[in-house]
């Protein structure tokens, strides 16, 4: 007889991931219910494979810092946005589910004001998604299916940026959201400074740097 396990029986150590294959949409939905909303784990579902990741503290530190850098840029440049954090994006028709570490509606921010529930049949994808330590094709496939125009992936002390071209992600050197700024270099510098002097001073330095460029 097939073995049936409850999610509560699974123990995923920080920094590790669990892959569950041959999972249909109804089973995926049930897993989301069992996982609940108040959890540290992140999920990705594509091609009938569910990936559950348990991030390390350094992961949370990096994703928070990069997300704060984006918020500072948007604020200082007076660009309106709606931040949706690690919201679950899923659509049965396309067979995917994904939870970014951070995501932002910028071009389509007005359409998302006040939204507490997403309907991907009518709602647009976020303009920018951020992931840290992505090692699985399941995750990037889900972002392609969602149609996120720009994806930032931070890993191995380096930020890589991707834009969709001909239905696939191609690495880009200049952000389409912030085309005038050296985002890759800035992320490296601010993360290094945060380890040297602390998160808040590093972000204050970054904000001052932006203001100097504007003046």
TrEMBL record:
Molecular function, one GO term: endonuclease activity
Domain Putative restriction endonuclease: 25-174
Keyword Acyltransferase attributed: no
Keywords, sorted A to Z: Endonuclease, Hydrolase, Nuclease
Family annotation (Pfam families): Uma2 (PF05685)
Entry annotated with the keyword Isomerase: no
Top-rank lineage group of the source organism: Bacteria
This protein's name: Uma2 family endonuclease
